[in-house]
Specification:
79 residues; two-stranded antiparallel sheet; 2 strands
Length: 79
């Protein structure tokens, strides 16, 4: 039997598509983990004197947003 039946062709095609989907999932996972590591890694402060020397980007971002919000809330509270 040298010919392949239609069922075998569909099975091989489906297995190939499943592997391709798995490949892209791994790629997304690797990129997501790289972004998380970059956001959590200690970095020198962008604005000297505002935060400690080596804090993560997420910490710097949260402190900046906190500062902007406190300035905004002060400006809104003025008559």
């Amino acid at each position: 039997m040298g010919t392949e039946t239609m069922i075998h062709k569909q099975y091989r095609q489906r297995c190939s598509q499943d592997r391709e989907r798995g490949q892209s999932m791994i790629e997304y996972l690797v990129v997501a983990l790289a972004v998380i590591v970059l956001l959590l890694a200690p970095m020198p402060s962008v604005v000297p004197g505002k935060t400690t020397a080596n804090t993560s980007i997420l910490t710097q971002l949260s402190e900046a947003l906190r500062g902007f919000y406190s300035d905004y809330s002060w400006a809104v509270s003025q008559p």
